[in-house]
Amino acid sequence: MSTIPPNISAEHEISRENIYQSKVQNLLHKHKGLLVAAYYGHSSQSSSSSSPPSASFPQNDDSSSSSSSSSLIKKQYASERAIIDRIIANERNAFLGGLAITALAFASLRYGPRTLLTKLNPDKARQIKEAEALADKTKSSLVRWVQKSATFMFESSFGIFVGYKIGYTKLSAQTNEVTYGEISKLPLCAGRSRVCEQACSDVASLVHNEIPTAFWNVVQDEIDAGGRGEASRLKDLERWQAIRNFADNCVKRQRYEESYRKQYGLSKDAIVDIPAGGVPR
Q: Structural domain of residue 195, as residue ranges?
């Protein structure tokens, strides 16, 4: 029986990374907006679970029990929401950083040269200003509008390009590891988790059934070798690591819930509100 050399097997799996990425994209598309839905989910559930009091009849105890139930649900998902809070904060900071760099690049291109020229050569700056004033008088308003609009569009496009490439992309890359780490820890959170309830089975199936073990061996080899970014043979090592960790943590959560049900004599489909501290690691 012939065996495939490890290096050939590894290269084969690396060449199939795009195929595995498409599987991940399909899964993400299926659960599109899940983080946001989980973040705001208990609020909508709270509002939908309570009905407005009637003006014609006295209010009974249903409203108080509904309010109590809503508070309990909110408490059960509090740990998950705290993690999602941190994820959103990371992405927001990267976005705001990109906007700040965009504004800085635009201002530097639009006002920087003239400000610098004014300081270094005031006479030349005055001549340019006079030439522009003369052009405004001699050329038609349409021509000047087109010229100014074209200049503004160029400066804006340059600012957006710099803001995205240097600002958001770089800052986002720096926060990716933190964000991926937070997402992968969601299945370990205390209480309940909407993300896990809806996505865990699909992610675990993808990692443990659809993507072969040989590929995950490559991922682990790259991690052990310290390959990050361009040094890695994989396009997005951090994402693969987060996906695998998320799936493994889903399995840990499932086993913990099963053990908890047995310990307290609960039915197999009983909801488990994991105690403070979360799933043991």
A: 1-29+191-281
